[in-house]
Design goal:
homodimer; 351 residues; alpha/beta; Four Helix Bundle (Hemerythrin (Met), subunit A); Rossmann fold; 7-stranded mixed β-sheet; 14 strands; globular
């Protein structure tokens, strides 16, 4: 299995995803500039993978400064973290992972820098390992949804390239393949940035899994023609009632799945739930640059100055979501109720 | 208004659509090779425009040979027509238009070539002018479907660039604009060949009509977010019961329109009906090259050898089609019934 981000000595080794699928190149990040640039330029992407890269990157970037005065070192680590926090302002995991690493340094003030740094390194490693574990639990939970010889349609990339482990939406697929079950995956290109054809097709093919790429336009007729059994996608944010924000095009697939009687599943860590929001209407939707549409492949594919509407995400209402696969199990609608049962069960098992 | 294909002296003047939207260039076709190459390379495209280009092109290609022996000339014109007929084997209009031009030459055997050639030229011109008239009639019929300040979503290119006139799906939009009604058009990119962003956006912008380009993935959330009032598309073939074959992605838009309570209209000349077929299942669906997906615009956007499923068309069942706008009026479902009434009315008005 590939690793989107991991340790290589004291450097952060990532796969440069901007070069895929034409070239597979691993690069090692050591300095603050290298780490910040890699996140900013989407060399590493996917909310969980970005958080991990920032955590490991913060630790790596401090390595050459262990001999500094402790006060200077502490000022430096706050400075490095602040820089990394601004590389992708919208990714929640980024700030969360940096904060976890900073906290262990703040909590343990030593006379030398070595001790706090070692603890930061251990914390960053823990974030990576926990994500691997979350992915595997999502995979285990979702396995029951994939029939033998099943045809799964997915969108964008919610795979190994987006996480520290085997992905979210792709996790049940990897586990099914690991258990020698036959699975066929149909992946939509996912305009504008083509994460489906560039990344998902690449990582599944590399893992020896049967994958077919379709244009986003072909999704509707592909469902009946290739006998799609289920749609399985990731999520960027899920509200308390189960509305799902995910890559643009997800909502359309959910409508098409409903029309064809195909179940539509979402896979994401439990931490993707935002319990402060009830309705998906309240999720702010980022708009992407018009240039991604007008000059997507380096060629001018629309008139120079034509207006473009390019939302990065859409919201699928809970009513269209057949189940949500989390590291804490599979939730079924109504989600307000199944989340309550889950919380009660965990409280009881703790008591 | 632009002309996709027209006479320029005795040459066929076309807009080279492979260069759009980056460059507007008109080219004149005079020889058989030039005409055949232009159709084969999609410099001129859209079923009606291809038929017209072939008809005018056949006539133009014979111009230098008017002094040949009449028998040699007649053999040559059959040979030229045969070559042109194979340039795009699936387009019905191509064979139909060539046959119309050939027939007038066959019916009038003169001792000189000038007479038959003049009649062929008049027949080719008639095909062009009839198409202009058909487009205008579709526009007039469809005008009632477009509310003032309406937002129309369209797919692919069924406009002036695809016909000899003002298009099919775009015809009511051009007429509404001509009558100073405010219309906003939302056009999907239309992967794989991007006729929506490359061609439809270009011709509407040039005509001063308010147009916004979206990725195909954004269609679902755009319907409610931009307040789309109707979807209006062209058709490649319509069965006797009203199933519609059109560019891949059309069926998906019809499902999305139904889900959002948005009417879904098809505009096409009456000649698009294929009364020999009842169900859309019987329409053969051409598959496009995998390279259009893997290397769409010169860049590798999917793994080199990854399997691709790329149907060029899909079929929208009659149940999802709110009305069909033809040059003979607007047909409403059930189409078998409205077609019968139309035929009876025409028979009565003839009697």
């Amino acid at each position: 299995m590939i690793s989107a981000v991991r340790w290589h000595g004291d450097a952060v080794r990532i796969i440069d995803q901007t070069l895929l699928p034409a070239e597979y190149r691993e690069i090692d990040l050591r300095t603050l500039d290298e780490v910040a640039e890699a996140i900013r330029s989407l060399r590493v992407r996917g909310a969980p993978a970005i958080g991990i890269a920032a955590a490991l990157g913060l630790v790596a970037s401090l390595r050459p400064f262990l001999d500094e005065e402790p006060a200077a070192f502490r000022a430096r680590l706050e400075r490095h973290a602040a820089t990394l926090r601004t590389t992708r302002p919208t990714a929640v995991n980024l700030a969360w992972a940096l904060e976890r690493v900073l906290r262990v340094a703040r909590d343990h003030r030593d006379t030398s820098n070595r001790g706090p740094w070692e603890r930061m390194r251990a914390e960053a490693t823990a974030i990576l390992e926990e994500d691997q574990e979350l992915c595997r639990r999502i995979g285990e939970a979702g396995l029951e949804l994939i029939p033998d010889r099943g045809v799964v349609m997915t969108h964008c990339n919610a795979g190994a390239l987006a996480t520290g482990g085997i992905g979210t939406a792709l996790a049940p697929i990897y586990l099914a393949a690991e258990r020698r079950r036959v699975v066929r995956v149909v992946v939509t290109e996912t305009r504008p940035l083509l994460q489906g054809s560039r990344l998902t097709a690449w990582e599944l093919q590399r893992a020896g899994i049967d994958v077919t790429v379709i244009s986003d336009n072909a999704a509707a007729s592909t469902m009946p023609r290739l006998g799609v059994d289920l749609v399985l996608v990731g999520a960027d944010r899920i509200t308390a009632r189960g509305d799902v924000a995910n890559k643009i095009g997800t909502y359309g697939l959910a409508v098409l799945a409903r029309h064809h009687g195909v179940p539509f599943y979402v896979a994401a860590p439990y931490s993707t739930f935002d319990f402060s929001i009830e309705s998906g209407d309240r999720i702010p939707i980022e708009e992407r640059s018009a240039e991604e549409i007008r000059r997507g492949f380096g060629t001018l594919t629309a008139p120079e100055a034509v207006p473009v509407f390019s939302p990065a995400f859409d919201v699928t209402p809970a009513e269209l979501v057949s189940a949500i696969v989390t590291d804490r199990g599979v939730l079924r609608p109504p989600y307000t109720e199944s989340l309550r049962v889950l919380a009660a069960g965990r409280a009881a098992s703790r008591g």
